[in-house]
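Narrative summary of target 7.
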Amino acid sequence: MDYIDYYKILGVDKNATADEIKKAYRKLARKHHPDLNPNNPEASKLFQQINEANEVLSDPENRKKYDQYGKDWKHAEQFEQAKKQQRSSGEYQQGNPFGGSDNPFGGGEYFSGGDGDYSDFFSSMFGNRGGGRQTKFKGQDFRASVQLSLTEAAKTHQRTFTVNGKNIRITVPAGMENGQEIKLSGHGAPGMNGGPNGDLYITFEIQNNTAFTRKGKDLYTNVPLDLYKAILGGEEFIDTLDGKVKMKVVPETQNGTKVRLKGKGFPVYKKEGEFGDLYVTYQIQLPTNLTEKEKELFVQLAGERKTN
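Modeled conformation, tokenized:
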């Protein structure tokens, strides 16, 4: 396994803050997403490396292991455990962390604790030593983000992802929440020594492309209502996710009146046929550019109200 400089991939230095890493990842993920670069065969590989770098550097524990162990960071716990066992047995010595001999595992070199090759150590400690049993390790998990519009999130549909050069098609259930994460088991990096593959974690980012405000399964919207219809009553066509519906406006409707359209809200995640509600708030619009005749009629109306 070749060493990959995750800091270089994200374009940040080793002292970068968590926010700087997050911003760099989002910028690069959008720029190099395979869906946006269909004619670039390298886009998928680069996108995978960007996600891999973010997975490691955005996690404080993983980042600490990576800074200390480089490409063998996933086996840091086994390494630390081995050192503790050596210390407890009295074999650990300064300068040679694995005892008095140059290599207690039978190889030609020992791990020096500096810039040496960790892979040699792990291969000797966990690999096939004289036909012994190999320790299996799960492959690295991958992470990716997918952007959906609110109208897309309201419908069950299929999406295709490219991971390690393979196309993966999944069904995205209606009702996905912003920031919601799903796991695709076994679609991460291959395992070591016959261990299971890692998993693929997909985070969904929902962008609102409508006039609605979403709060969970419910939707909210403001609807302008002219003065005459508010006073006299009538009918009003209201936009919903499924098109327009006709609503009855009761006479003398007040500004700010809120009405509920049951079952016209957002679909509930993985609950077929279940929806939230749509709440409509009326905002009464006063007429402008009145004619002289209209002004006279309003004066007459005002006089009528005073006499009653």
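The domain at 142-207 is CATH 2.60.260.20 (HSP40/DNAj peptide-binding domain).
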